[in-house]
């Protein structure tokens, strides 16, 4: 059922060519870029972080995963908070929160402090990431909304493309701490502009109960406990076994709470759509493979191939550039031929690219060894990401499009989280492996076929379970996309959805 009209959202909204429209675009691009940059540059900084803080591989895994645990667990709740209390207000809180957490990351004296600050960063990201798109949907005139979303996603894609390059330059120059400290001046620019130039908006619907804080907490707790158990599994202690069991219990409790609540964060009846369930299984597979790949590839290039941080960050740019240039065309192709072929062929190309990375070892040639693998992988990601998003939106009622997109985005982040925790264990990577080029190269050689196998499972699921959607289904508005960590968020026609 469609939601009632929102407060402050009339048929006459802000036009994109006006000063007010440009201010709103600038604000939302700055805010989303903070979170997007952080999710793409940290991998490049990991070897230097480990060396400076004397951290083992588990600490590096947590440097990535602490952020993803809170972001994936709370992103649906973050969207709901903005809809209820004011999208601008929650967005600004998220920007400030993210900046303070980034400052704590930048001054962290040791690995535990850095991991704790990264978890706080994820909370800020969960508030500002859905809020940036919500502000566009709520503020712009309906005739300009699609163009505004396109500009927002395009500029965000450019941010994703330059992120590893900027991150590598910072790591090699002033130091890895500036990867985080850079967010502080961005926030000092973004928050005042939002407060001065962005109109406030809320969702006028009446909700049955309060926020599903319990569901969000249980979801994040389950992810955190399972992640800990996977990272520490090699120790084989009783604590690890108990943590794994507690993670399973928390996951069961999350499902129970979501089933019983009148207004849950993640209504389980949305999975009654077989197409929605199938495409989320595909998402779990492909983004698990992507998460594991990008975590290890940045380390392989630096630890084994001898690249600098800047060199490693620049080396990975072709993937994002391909996604920026071709994602809209891939979406158009998917609409013409249906999602089944792209969602099957895309994983095949990704698997081939991951296997080609086996050629990347000591003194690897960028042109002969690294670039071909990244081009094939990038073409595979281009082929599948846009049709994946379109199929998610097409598999549910239009009024639930935003919710479906939020669940899919959270599923992708959770998949990457589990992969970063599990892949080093599955590949036999020891706690000090990243300090030894030979040991890391051996583990990387075992890990890439595992990534390829997981992404191939996603292709098989797509081939057997995904079907062409109805011709009048909801279509994505974020046609240009450059992030490699999760599919783009979409909203439900300007109404609450996440």
Automatic annotation (TrEMBL):
Top-level taxonomic group: Bacteria
Keywords tagged on the record: Antibiotic resistance, Cell membrane, Membrane, Transmembrane, Transmembrane helix, Transport
Location of the protein in the cell: Cell membrane
Residue span of region Disordered: 473-498
Positions of the Major facilitator superfamily (MFS) profile domain: 24-470
Protein's UniProt keywords contain Nucleotide-binding: no
Alphabetical list of InterPro entries matching this protein: EmrB-like, MFS, MFS_dom, MFS_trans_sf
Segments traversing the membrane: 23-46, 58-78, 90-109, 115-136, 148-170, 176-198, 210-231, 237-257, 278-301, 307-328, 340-358, 370-394, 406-427, 447-466
Membrane topology, from the record: Multi-pass membrane protein
Name this protein carries in UniProt: MFS transporter
Top-level taxonomy: Bacteria, Bacillati, Actinomycetota, Actinomycetes, Kitasatosporales
């Amino acid at each position: 059922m469609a939601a009632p009209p929102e407060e402050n959202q009339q048929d006459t909204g802000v036009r994109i060519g006006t000063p007010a429209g440009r201010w709103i675009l600038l604000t939302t691009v700055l805010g989303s870029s903070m979170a997007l940059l952080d999710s793409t540059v940290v991998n490049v900084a990991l070897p230097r972080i480990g060396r400076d803080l004397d951290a083992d591989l588990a600490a590096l895994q947590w440097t990535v995963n602490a952020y993803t645990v809170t972001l994936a667990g709370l992103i649906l709740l973050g969207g709901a908070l903005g809809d209820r209390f004011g999208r601008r207000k929650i967005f600004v809180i998220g920007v400030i929160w993210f900046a303070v957490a980034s400052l704590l990351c930048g001054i962290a004296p040791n690995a535990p402090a850095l991991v704790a600050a990264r978890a706080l960063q994820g909370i800020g990201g969960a508030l500002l990431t859905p809020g940036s798109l919500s502000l566009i949907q709520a503020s712009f005139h309906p005739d300009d909304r699609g163009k505004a979303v396109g500009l927002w996603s395009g500029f965000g894609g450019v941010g994703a493309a330059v992120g590893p390059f900027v991150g590598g330059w910072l790591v090699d120059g002033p130091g890895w701490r500036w990867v985080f400290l850079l967010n502080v001046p961005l926030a000092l620019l973004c928050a005042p502009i939002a407060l001065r130039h962005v109109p406030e908006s809320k969702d006028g619907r009446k909700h049955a109960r309060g926020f599903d804080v319990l569901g969000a907490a249980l979801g994040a707790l389950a992810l955190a406990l399972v992640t800990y158990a996977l990272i520490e599994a090699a120790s084989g202690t009783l604590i690890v076994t108990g943590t794994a069991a507690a993670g399973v219990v928390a996951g069961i409790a999350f499902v129970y709470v979501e089933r019983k609540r009148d207004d849950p964060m993640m209504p389980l009846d949305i999975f009654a759509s077989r197409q929605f369930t199938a495409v989320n299984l595909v998402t779990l597979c492909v983004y698990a493979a992507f998460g594991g790949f990008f975590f290890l590839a940045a380390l392989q290039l630096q630890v084994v191939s001898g690249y600098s941080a800047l060199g490693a960050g620049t080396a990975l740019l072709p993937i994002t550039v391909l996604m920026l240039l071709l994602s809209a065309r891939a979406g158009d192709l998917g609409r013409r031929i249906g999602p089944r072929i792209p969602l099957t062929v895309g994983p095949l190309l990704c698997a081939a690219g991951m296997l080609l990375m086996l050629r990347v070892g000591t003194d690897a040639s960028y042109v002969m060894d690294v670039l071909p693998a990244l081009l094939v992988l990038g073409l595979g990601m281009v082929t599948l990401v846009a049709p994946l998003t379109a199929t998610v939106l097409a598999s549910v009622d239009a009024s639930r499009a935003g919710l479906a997109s939020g669940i899919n985005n959270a599923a992708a982040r959770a998949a990457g989280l589990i992969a970063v925790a599990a892949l080093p264990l599955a590949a036999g990577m020891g706690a000090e492996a990243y300090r030894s080029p030979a040991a890391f190269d051996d583990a990387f050689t075992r890990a890439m076929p595992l990534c390829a196998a997981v992404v191939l499972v996603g292709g098989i699921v797509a081939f057997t379970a995904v079907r062409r959607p109805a011709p009048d289904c909801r279509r994505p508005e974020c046609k240009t996309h450059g992030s490699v960590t999760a599919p783009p968020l979409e909203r439900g026609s300007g109404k609450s959805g996440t």
